[in-house]
Amino acid sequence: MKIDKGIDLSRFILEEEKRYPKASGTLSRILISIENATKIISSHIRKAGLVDVLGKVGRINVQGEEVQKLDELANNWLVEHLASTGDFFAVVSEEMEKAFFPDEGKDGRYVICLDPLDGSSNVDVNISVGTIFSIYKRISDDDASFLQEGKKQVAAGYVIYGSSTMLVYSTGNGVNGFTLDPGVGSFILSHPNIKIPEKGKIYAFNESNYKKWSDNVKKYVDTVKDRGYTLRYVASMIADVHRTLLKGGIFAYPADNVNKNGKIRLLYEANPLGFLVTQAGGIATNGKVSILDVKPESLHQRTPIFMGSRVDMEEFLAITKEG
Ligand code: P6P
Fold first, then answer.
1. Which GO terms describe its biological process (predicted)?
2. Which end of the chain is more exposed for a tag (fewer CB within 10 A), N or C?
């Protein structure tokens, strides 16, 4: 398919659908519903200081985190939009303890995992946040459809609400990025066929956890610091991974002696972003195996995560395997 900058997302999705003569158009419809819901989120985030959407709801979510008003709003807008398509048999969200089975989705052939607003605590201080989605084929009438390895995702992507609003996604044929033109209200292809640099000079680790890491991880970080790598860490995974995808380097949230299984969630953070980094030519791992090969056991399980440029990741794996 000839990819021209300037094509809008809807046209791109339909063009890409032509690759699959048997396609029913469902995946296209799903992606367009995600596009529409995230435009609403973007609009509210861009005026967050002016409307009553900042601050906390006064409730703790299943993650043990304080729910931000925009967390709840983003979740509601996304779930409503996706349920109304009738294409989703079930939805898992960071904001909901259990999977949601929409009445309209009884015949739905897909399930979706969502982080409606990753990094939401940063909204109040105007730091980039994002929506992450991960789509699988329905294989069961219960939660089992969500417990498939990340390599079985049929599509994954994110929308980053940063200096501009960008949607980046893949259906397994490479990664493409679209920038929202607020004047037109359309996502326009701005970053065709994204490939992560083979090697970078940036490491994105929360160094304040250094003393809690394993010796192997400390050894890797010491190595790249001695080499003169730059530390860039936003504490919003979407922003850190988006920069890594475009500039190269490594993003990591290792396990430590407090977060023994790491902090990042497998289903709606590590798997979708790991799928994109892998599709762009990088590597994503839990430190032992590809993150996309991990068989999930529960909806909100956490995992150590390391992802980024191929050469940097191969060096990381070599150093941490030395033991
Ligand atoms: P820490 C945000 O809450 C998040 O889930 C990710 O977006 C981010 O990478 C991480 O947590 C930041 O965690 O412990 O470094 O503040």
1. fructose 1,6-bisphosphate metabolic process; fructose 6-phosphate metabolic process; fructose metabolic process; gluconeogenesis; sucrose biosynthetic process
2. C
